[in-house]
Amino acid sequence: MGNAIECRARDVSWAEAPADVAAMLGLPAGASIQIVHCAWTAAGNPVAVSTAYLREPAADDDRDAATPHADSAANAAAATAVSVEMSPPEPDVARALRLGPGEPASTVTVRFDNSATHVPAGLTVVTLRPELFRVAIDTAEAAGPRTARR
């Protein structure tokens, strides 16, 4: 906490959606989606990995773009489902974060829906070294004034 975080590596591809991702995005099995993998560092040390799954390429990108910006697709989308889990990550993620065997990580999964059509637009999964991050979830409903009840 308090360190600058940098994207150390970014890989963008088009591939068949994993079955669970396709289901969460309301896509048929075998559908092609844009996948953006990122590795994040702080002070040169790995701190997080993220994967964004997009139904369509970002508005300003096409399939052949070398560095599409997945975050621009989320500008027209709202977070509609969030899951937070603390458990040992998949082996490749544990290696990327330099975690020991069985060491837990925080995984945050967020589904975004198109604000106009309410159709699922994308899914982002971020796995974090838990000692370096505080996960806080704010919703529009919770942002309003709070009243005390007796």
Describe the protein.
A six-stranded antiparallel sheet has the order 1-2-3-6-5-4. The chain has a single domain, classed as Chorismate lyase, CATH 3.40.1410. The longest helix is centred in the N-terminal third of the chain and has 6 residues, at 19-24. The chain contains three helices and six strands; from the N terminus they run βαββαβαββ. It has 150 residues and is mostly beta strands. Strand 5 and strand 6 (120-128) form a beta hairpin. The chain is 11% helix and 41% strand. It has helices at residues 19-24, 70-74, 91-96, and strands spanning 6-16, 32-42, 45-54, 77-87, 105-114, 120-128. The radius of gyration is 17 Å and the shape is globular. Mean pLDDT is 83; it is low at 60-74 and 146-150.
Summarize the structure.
The protein has 150 residues and is mainly beta.
Strand content: 35-45%
CATH superfamily, by name, is Chorismate lyase-like
Helical residues, percent: 10-25%
Order of adjacent strands in the largest pleated sheet: 1-2-3-6-5-4
The beta-strand count equals 6
CATH class designation:
Alpha Beta
The rough form would be described as: globular
Q: Please give the domain count.
A: 1
Largest sheet data? 6 strands, antiparallel
**Separation, N- and C-terminal Cα atoms:** 37 Å
The average pLDDT is: 83
Low-confidence stretches: 60-74, 146-150
Radius of gyration from the alpha-carbon trace, in angstroms: 17 Å
Structural class: mainly beta
- Count, helices: 3
Name the CATH architecture: 3-Layer(aba) Sandwich
Annotated CATH topology: Chorismate lyase
The sequence of SSEs as H and E is EHEEHEHEE
